[in-house]
């Protein structure tokens, strides 16, 4: 007999992973406040139909209504065998029309034949037509006291809100992997089977949090092994998975930029596995390493040793960049007409990516070389008072880690000698700050140099790029605040000349040559 059917829960105490639902229904039966219409929603295989049948058992048990049905009376046995005349289970996928609903509505006026309640279980209720839902509305809101409706669906969004509002809704949660593993081990013990820990972990991980799927996989593994032992290898074969050792070896070759080893491992494993499965497992392994680098925790001891060794090879930033490239590559493989060729080229790209330095590393190397050269020639090396914003406009697949870096440039050399000009300019700054004109205040402090200032006249020189509306905004504010017409002049020629001259500086030229298509777009003074 199929394990999933044999061990289907027949009471709420056997229902796994739905503690909130069980507690609410237990209180409802205790207080005799059982809803007339119940809506159960959730993903496939987590117990919606099973819950509906248990509710029917609780309602029509000879001891009931009770939260703990006996399971042995005539009504309980009939419900378990799907032969009870007062418990009607309907598959809405094959009974979608309004005529099917009218047939139900025509019978609800009659009393139950042999029990206390007529229970209508409508599975996959979202498949009903619009007319069928409309016919059901009034009855759902005020059904006869002897009638209970239990609706189940995997697509709650497809059900009209008018129907949802007339039912007491329960959202069944996905079953945690730990609960699934516990259930599998319990059933294996009852059936005198032996299941390896790693095998139960694999089943729980690949069953989409569905107990039904997990039991089907367990039953399949039993039939595959025949000797009453469910091994990790048998589950791996059934699921078509790649051995974890192979995935770790493949990732190690990629991180070492060992293209020959990577292709050799890939060629061996692709004979029995789908290329997409290989790369998806590789994706999960990279995520595992990233999580380990942050939390320093991992479940299994074997994986911990391999993950710890691989995590020492590269930084967290690199692994996240590798994950992004691999994710994009998987999407490309899916749309490719030749999966294996696309997968092999993707693997080559990953190996070369692992050897590609980041912009930060390149700039640090150039700066260190410049410092060493200056020390050898006896020239002092200036500090870094300015920031050059370097933007990479080349292929986005290069995944540049940082859009800008700090390199040394010469001082602007612009100084104000007139103390009266400084005094007047400070008054403007104080006025902007008191008036909460933060944007104008920061621009004057950071991106402009004072040339001349007197009441009604302000001349400035730009040391970095400005917003095109800056002059008009500043002029409008000062005109209004002082009741005086202001003349504001901003000289941007210095900025343009600095950017132009900086392109020929040796250090900047090396950076621009390294990142093809990049250009200097701004200089910000750090003083």
Automatic annotation (TrEMBL):
Task: State what protein this is by name.
Answer: DNA-directed DNA polymerase
Q: Which residues form the AAA+ ATPase domain?
A: 34-176
Q: Identify the keywords attached in UniProt to this record, alphabetized.
A: ATP-binding, DNA replication, DNA-directed DNA polymerase, Metal-binding, Nucleotide-binding, Nucleotidyltransferase, Transferase, Zinc
Q: Which GO terms describe its molecular function?
A: ATP binding; DNA binding; DNA-directed DNA polymerase activity; metal ion binding
- The yes or no answer to whether the keyword Protein biosynthesis is present is no
The family classification in the record reads: Belongs to the DnaX/STICHEL family.
Output the SMART domains linked to this UniProt entry: AAA
Is Nucleotide-binding among this UniProt entry's keywords? yes
């Amino acid at each position: 007999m199929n394990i999933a059917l044999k061990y289907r829960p027949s009471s709420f105490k056997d229902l796994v992973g739905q503690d909130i639902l069980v507690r609410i229904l237990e209180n409802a039966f205790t207080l005799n406040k059982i809803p007339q219409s119940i809506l159960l929603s959730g993903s496939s295989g987590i117990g919606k139909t099973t819950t509906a049948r248990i509710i029917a058992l609780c309602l029509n048990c000879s001891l009931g209504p009770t939260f703990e049905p006996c399971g042995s009376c005539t009504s309980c046995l009939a419900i378990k065998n799907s032969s009870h005349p007062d418990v009607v289970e309907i598959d809405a996928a094959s009974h979608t029309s309004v005529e099917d609903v009218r047939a139900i509505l025509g019978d609800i006026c009659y009393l139950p034949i042999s029990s206390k309640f007529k229970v209508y279980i409508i599975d996959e209720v979202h498949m009903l037509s619009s007319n069928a839902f409309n016919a059901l509305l009034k009855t759902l809101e005020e059904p006869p006291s002897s009638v209970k409706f239990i609706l189940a669906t995997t697509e709650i969004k497809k059900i009209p809100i008018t129907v949802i509002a007339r039912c007491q809704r329960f959202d069944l949660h996905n079953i945690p992997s730990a609960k699934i593993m516990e259930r599998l081990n319990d059933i294996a013990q009852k059936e005198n089977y032996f299941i390896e820990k790693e095998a139960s972990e694999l089943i729980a991980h690949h069953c989409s949090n569905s107990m039904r799927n997990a039991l089907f996989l367990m039953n399949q593994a039993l039939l595959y092994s025949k000797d009453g032992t469910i091994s990790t290898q048998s589950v791996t074969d059934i699921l078509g998975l790649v051995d974890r050792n192979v995935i770790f070896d493949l990732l190690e070759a990629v991180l070492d930029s060992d293209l020959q080893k990577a292709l050799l491992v890939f060629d061996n494993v692709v004979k029995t596995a789908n290329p997409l499965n290989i790369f998806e497992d590789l994706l999960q392994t990279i995520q595992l390493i990233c999580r380990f680098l942050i939390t320093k925790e991992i479940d299994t001891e074997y994986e911990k040793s391999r993950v710890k060794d691989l995590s020492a090879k590269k930084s967290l930033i690199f692994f996240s960049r590798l994950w992004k490239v691999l994710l994009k590559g998987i999407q490309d493989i899916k749309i490719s007409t030749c999966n294996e060729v696309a997968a092999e080229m993707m693997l080559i790209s990953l190996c070369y990516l692992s050897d590609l330095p980041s912009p930060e590393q390149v700039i640090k190397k150039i700066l260190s070389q410049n410092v060493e050269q200056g020390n050898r020639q006896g020239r002092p090396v200036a500090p870094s008072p300015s920031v050059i914003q370097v933007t990479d406009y080349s292929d986005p697949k290069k995944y540049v880690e940082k859009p800008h870096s700090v390199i040394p440039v010469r001082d602007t050399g612009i100084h104000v000698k007139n103390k009266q000009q400084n005094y007047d300019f400070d008054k403007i700054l104080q006025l902007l700050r008191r008036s909460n004109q933060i944007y104008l205040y920061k621009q004057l402090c950071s991106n402009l140099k004072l040339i001349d200032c007197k009441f009604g006249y302000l001349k400035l020189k730009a040391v970095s790029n400005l917003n095109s509306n800056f002059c008009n905004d500043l002029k409008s504010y000062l005109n209004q605040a002082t009741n005086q017409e202001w003349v504001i002049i901003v000289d941007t020629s210095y900025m343009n000349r600095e950017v132009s001259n900086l392109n020929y500086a040796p250090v900047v030229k090396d950076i621009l040559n390294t990142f093809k298509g990049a250009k200097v777009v701004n200089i910000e003074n750090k003083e």
